[in-house]
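Researcher: I need the complex structure. Ligand is guanosine-5'-monophosphate. Inputs:
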Amino acid sequence: MSTPSSLRVVVLSGPSGAGKTTIVGELLAKSPVPLSLSISATTRPPRPGEQDGDHYHFLSPEEFQRRREAGEFLECAEVHKSGYWYGTLQSEIQRIHELGSWALLEIDVEGALRVMELYPQAISIFLQTPSMAEYEQRLRSRGSESEEVLQRRLRTAENELKFAASYRYCVVNDQLERAVREICEILSREDTGSHVG
Ligand code: 5GP
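Model: Output:
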């Protein structure tokens, strides 16, 4: 896909349960630049309260596969070995570009590496929990996963951490407000900085 030089892409990854969703919400409210969240497609079923087209575009495995073969995804991956697929639709990036916004992609490491390949100018941010022990504690206090899923997420997080160095920025999510402020500062700097398309 051609990449218009004015298109700004922000990629945010980090272990699930590290407070990513909260950070994303805060960022959308406080960003110093126009920022829109890319709504991913997924084959995982909606959780209570999740609306189609709002949190995700919920697709059947067949529909996902059809769109994948049709080349409609910028990137897609089976995340956390869950058996569920997640992907960023090209049409989402196009929609956000037409809005004149920067696209915020909250995606896993595999997808993020692919996006960085496609858009070398992408602002990639890895959100890190202060320590593995604290991460485990956060996951446990959330209490929404079985022990098996929790262990799988811990292993994935440990694995993903190895890729943190591939991101342009690494932000420690020690305190929500502080982490959001740091990311806003990054975006401000990128806005006024020496960006080359
Ligand atoms: P959840 O099922 O908890 O909503 O999301 C699980 C994981 O899927 C998250 O860690 C998130 O980063 C990842 N994810 C969500 N959307 C996408 C996407 O479009 N592409 C990729 N590669 N990962 C995604």
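Model: Summary of the prediction. The mean pLDDT is 91.
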